[in-house]
Amino acid sequence: MSKIFTGNAWKYGDNIDTDVIIPARHLVTSDETELGKHCMEDIDKDFVKKVSPGDMIVGGENFGCGSSREHAPIAIKGAGCSCVIAASYARIFFRNAINVGLPIFECPEAAASIETGDKIEVDPGAGTITNKTKGKTFGVAPFSPFLQDLIQQGGLIPYVRKELARRKGA
Length: 170
Known about the structure:
The chain is of the alpha/beta class. The chain has helices at residues 18-21, 32-36, 47-50, 71-78, 91-100, 108-113, 145-152, 156-169; strands at residues 5-11, 56-59, 83-86, 104-106, 119-123, 128-131, 136-139.
């Protein structure tokens, strides 16, 4: 059973690059909590003061473009966001997000319809994004059981550690 994500939307536009998600001046650590304190500050200086645990970032086209730093999805998790919904993603951001256990959903229709402040529910197992504020539901590719497990474990490294320990004990 996959976790259902609920929270408020924080909407940004197209081409939100990794330098905006986490400015380079804060790349002196890979600590999730510390990076989260600076998430989105160059585009929305008060983002981390406004965001609540479980909230979601919504982006337009090419979310996460720019440098290939894993710090960007780590910062989003550190800010307390449960997931990201966007019209499309830069390929390296997509992979980095999955690798660090940040659920991301590609749905141009949902991204276009959702506005900042809308209450959103995402069911990765069912493949639905529901805008509770507007009463609209959008389909998105459901996560495979493997991806659900990988994300639930916190990303690729914790997943592999668990699998190695399981196999060693078997």
